[in-house]
Amino acid sequence: MAETPLNLDSQEFDHDAPELGVFLDPSNNPSGLPKEAIVIKITGEINLYSAQIMKEKFFHLLDRGFLYLLVNMENVKYIDSSGLGVFMATHSRLVKSGKGGIAVFAPSSQVNKILELTKLKSLIRVGSTSSEAWKLLSP
Description:
anti-sigma factor antagonist activity; Anti-sigma_ant; STAS_dom; STAS_dom_sf; Anti-sigma factor antagonist
């Protein structure tokens, strides 16, 4: 049972379903990651039906005191406007608080193309690794 510095238990947090998985991803923690930062792994498809689960998980992390979300998207096959909206809502909430940020890393080529076409890359930092994503976010 792995716990994060802010006492978030993976058994409490993880969501594993065929269409969408949302997991704590401590194996991708870059060095120097503060306790207010967390790495999350998303798998499957982010669409109208699964985006709400992802939003609940992201907002739960913010409510628990996490300020920096690093999102591993290497196993995301598809993201639609609902999923993009979750990233925008999370970004907006962090901006309103005046601290923190959200970054994604290792997006598939299809997801990366969607991020580019929608210009979401201008709001959300995108790195190829968790270390690179953290460097883009770190204060």
